[in-house]
Amino acid sequence: MRRAVLTAAALAGALALAGCGTGTGSGSGSSSARAELSVRSSYMPQPVSADMAAGFLTITNRGGAKDELTSVTSDVAGQVTMHSTVGGAMAEKTSFAVPAHGQLVFKSGGNHLMFEKLKRRPEQGQKVTLKLTFAKSGPLTVEMPVESATYNPSTGH
Predict the structure, then answer these.
(1) Do the beta carbons of residue 143 and residue 41 sit within 8 Å?
(2) Running DSSP on this structure, what letter comes out for residue 15?
């Protein structure tokens, strides 16, 4: 009986120590030493212009390391630029930080994507493919729905 108790105690100790690692495996939650990126709430209002459109989304990082969005490309645009809006002034940015255990939000009136030199004019009900490139993590591909020009999402974006 004593031997079984000692074996169980040793096993419990080993399992506890295994949980103290760097968290580089998937699904390790808050102890992760890398970024764990996902995208939600993406949309493009149907463009009113034939050559330019805006895009909005939220990038969530559940990992323990920060990352940086360095570029965005799309099949529908000659180029996609990233912009910040502070105090009503819009400025193009070459990158945006994605904080550990945080979010990067692109929303109307704030940070946003500009799809320039449109190859075709996206229509409501269609989807636009985006490729998000990060400094450390692999790229993410997003299917962004095209909504009405007056769309106001319940998420506030």
Answers:
(1) no
(2) H
Rounded to an integer, what distance in angstroms lies between the CA atom of residue 89 and that of residue 18? 50
Contact 47, 118 (CB under 8 A): yes
Residue 44's closest CA among 54, 31, 34? 54
Q: What burial class does residue 35 get, using C-beta atoms within 10 Å of its C-beta: 0-12 exposed, 13-18 middle, 19+ buried?
A: buried
Check residue 37 and give its pLDDT. 98
pLDDT band at 6 (very low <50, low <70, confident <90, very high): very low
- Contacting residues for 149 by C-beta, under 8 A, at least 6 apart: 45, 46, 47, 48
* Residue found by looking up tokens 């450390």 in the block: 136
Q: What is the dihedral of CA 87, 78, 68, 141, to 10 degrees?
A: 120
Alpha helices in the chain (DSSP H): 2-18
Judged against a pLDDT cut of 90, whether residue 149 lies above it is answered with yes
This prediction has a pTM of 0.77
Ramachandran sector of residue 17 (left: φ over 0; alpha: ψ -120 to 50; beta: rest): alpha
